[in-house]
Structure formats: C-alpha cells, structure tokens
UniProtKB/TrEMBL annotation:
Name of protein: EthD family reductase
A molecular function (GO) term: oxidoreductase activity
InterPro entries xrefs: Dimeric_a/b-barrel, EthD_dom
UniProt superkingdom: Bacteria
Organism field: Marivita cryptomonadis
C-alpha cells in the first residue's frame, strides 16, 4: 500500500519562512538523504486558505512512498533534514502520514 508523508509549515504572527533557502538548500538535502526511498515529491506554497482568507501555512511538502518499509527507511535517514529546519523557519512543522487512496 502506498503511503504519503506531508510536512505542513503553519503560519503564526511570530514565525518566518525563507523560501529561497527551503527550495535551494533544504529540498535538495531531502533528495540527498531520503530521495532513494521516495516515489514522488510535491511542494505547495500557501497562497490562501479560502476565497478571501490568507494562507494558514507557508508550505506543504508531500512525499509518497511505495510502502511502509520505504517510508520507514526515509524517516530513518531524515536526521540531517530535520536538523536543517531551523535554518529556514522558526515555525513548528506538523506531519501527517497517511494511506494514499486516490
């Protein structure tokens, strides 16, 4: 069964997010350390939370995996990636692991 990992970066009044660093340094680091286990990656920049509502998240990174063993291997290799988060944001990322159903 295919699984996904979503990393969500919420916006608050006290937080910041460096998109240039995230795209130019952090995401290549994801590829270097976790990429062998990832089936696909999609990064979405938050623009709005509704027709007339500001975004609630800076970005959402969605990674898909062929199965639980691939997800586990990627998470096992993610130490340097997790340690790098403080270099581009001070928000507390949220994670959602789920079964891909469509």
């Amino acid at each position: 069964m295919a699984l996904s990992l979503q990393v969500i970066y919420p916006i608050t009044d006290e937080t910041h997010f460096d998109y240039d660093y995230y795209l130019g340094t952090h995401m290549p680091m994801v590829g270097e350390h976790m990429g062998a286990h990832i089936a696909s990656v999609l990064v979405t920049k938050g623009l709005a939370s509704g027709p007339d509502a500001p975004p609630q998240s800076y970005a959402v990174a969605t990674m898909t995996f062929a199965d639980k063993s691939a997800l586990d291997a990627a998470l096992g290799a993610s130490g340097p990636v997790v340690a790098d988060i403080a270099n581009f944001t001070n928000t507390q990322p949220q994670m959602l692991i789920g079964e891909v159903i469509a």
